[in-house]
Amino acid sequence: MTEIPDTYPPDEPTAEKPKPSAGSKKKKKLILGVLGALVVLFAAYEIGWLWLVCRVTVDPEEFLVVTSKFGDPNPDPQNLLVVSADVQGIQEDVVTEGRHFFNPFLQDTELKQVTDIAPGWMGVVKSKSGMPLPAGEFLAEKGQKGILRQPLTPGRYRLNPYAYEVEAVEAVAIMPGYVGCVTSRSGRERAQGQLAEAGEKGIQRTVLQPGLYYLNPKEFEVQAVEIGYREIYLPAVKFQSKGYEIELDMSVVWGLKPENVPYIVQQVADNLESVGTKIFKPAIESIARLEGSKFAVKDFLEGDKREEFQAAVTARLKDEARKQNIEVLIALVRDIKIPDVIATPIQQSKIDAEEVRTKQIEQLTTEVANELERLKEDVVKGVREVRANTERLVAETLAVGSKRVAVIHAETERLVAEIEQQIAEQDAMREKTRGAADARVQQMLAEAASRRLAMNVAAMGGANAYTRYTFAEKLPPGFKVFLRYAGPGTLWTDLSSLQDLADLKILQDSGPASEP
User: Under a CB-based contact definition with an 8 Å cutoff, are residues 70 and 34 in contact?
Assistant: First the structure.
């Protein structure tokens, strides 16, 4: 059996180690001292240099602009005010909040405040660094110098102030009941007289619905236009009819649909107040001239003809306005003025006719008033006659009524007497019948009692037995009879009487109380 050593696996035999010399100990101490000095220097660098000299702390409301002192030279110092990494100069990228370390011998730093765009506002950005704009362009894209096409929406931005300027402007707000007519200052040229599509310069075909829009005011102009109906008053619209000048005043209620707003703005050069003078007034003058030629001058003084003329003008104006993308609700002719040389004779003749008619009416009124007075007198007379006849009829009616009441009263008393006599006869007959019935009842009761007595006597075996039974029935319940023997010659010698008592059950009722 193999013996297991104390250590497993067994230790290998080792050679005796040589003792270090004095020179090696000094060398080791020197190395350790150098390493310690390096550690101290590194700690001093970290604490003193980095944390006290190179450290920069940026708060959340700030950012850091860095200027590099070393690197490649700026290729275009005139246009590029900020540069990219590895290029000497102001760095385009900024440093956000936090703890950062910059060597002041290599880089300069500058703290700046962030740019806040409040809700309902936007920021128009101007780039101060970049390539020049192409000819004919006034809006810049990324990397170009000038006003950037895209504005900033509400938020917080860290834009290098050496590269960008920000102007805060209000966003475009379209309120309910309005639409926004947009005019683009930038884009392709549109066809002459046509509305602009997206990407074209000019009045845009599409309008903005109510809401908030962030459109660069340098690129777009937005006009808020009220939709719905409104009124325009057009005084002194003149036209020729049959060689005479006629003047009329009109009120037009018109409105715009949202999709038609750009067409109207294009025609009136953004001034909706001029719709009346630029669109409606010329149209009404033309329509009135055409329709007025169908009427004589005096027709404009007559109600029916005036109304017919107004209806024709309104219908034609609605058709013409619809061609101009305008909706006309109503066109009302408020007044028509014709020359005095025509109007005065016609009006005078009408006045004369009215005066004649007025006199005729006054005469007719007088006749009617006289007839009314006569009728009033007839009415008064008739009222008196009716009142007298009424009183006579009332008196006659009362007399006839009183007589009839007396007859009815007498007849009623006679009938009452007859009824009372019949009642008395019925009462007498009832009393007689009741007496006979009571007598018969008494007789029947007596007969019944007699028959019952006879039956009881017969049942008891005779009158004597019934008498004894009756006597016994009337005895008290506790009545007792004692028989005692007293010897010969006593009262109790009649044995037959004892038997009779036994028949009456007197002895049985007395029970054991009897003695011999």
Answer: no
- Token readout for 245 is 């000048």
- 3-state SS of 31-73 is HHHHHHHHHHHHHHHHHHHHHHHHEEEECCCEEEEEEECCCEC
Q: Which amino acid is at 35?
A: L
Q: What is the CA radius of gyration of the chain?
A: 71
Residues 277 and 226: beta-carbon distance below 8 Å: no
Using alpha carbons only, give the angle 131, 134, 137 rounded to the nearest 5 degrees.
115
Q: What are the pLDDT digits (tens) for 381-437?
A: 888 888 888 888 888 888 888 888 888 888 888 888 888 888 888 888 888 888 888
Check if the beta carbon of residue 265 is closer than 8 Å to that of residue 223: yes
The string of pLDDT tens digits covering residues 425-443 is 888 888 888 888 888 888 8
Structure token digits, residue 83: 């540069």
β-bridge pairing 139-140 and 146-148: parallel
Query: Residue 255: exposed, middle, or buried by beta-carbon count in 10 A (0-12, 13-18, 19+)?
Result: middle
How many residues does this entry show for the chain? Answer: 516
Tens of pLDDT along 435-481?
888 888 888 888 888 888 888 888 877 878 878 777 777 777 776 66
Backbone angles phi, psi at 11, to 5 degrees: -65, 140
Q: In degrees rounded to 5, what are phi and psi of residue 181? A: -90, 120
User: How far is residue 317's CA from residue 252's CA, in Å, rounded to a whole number?
Assistant: 9
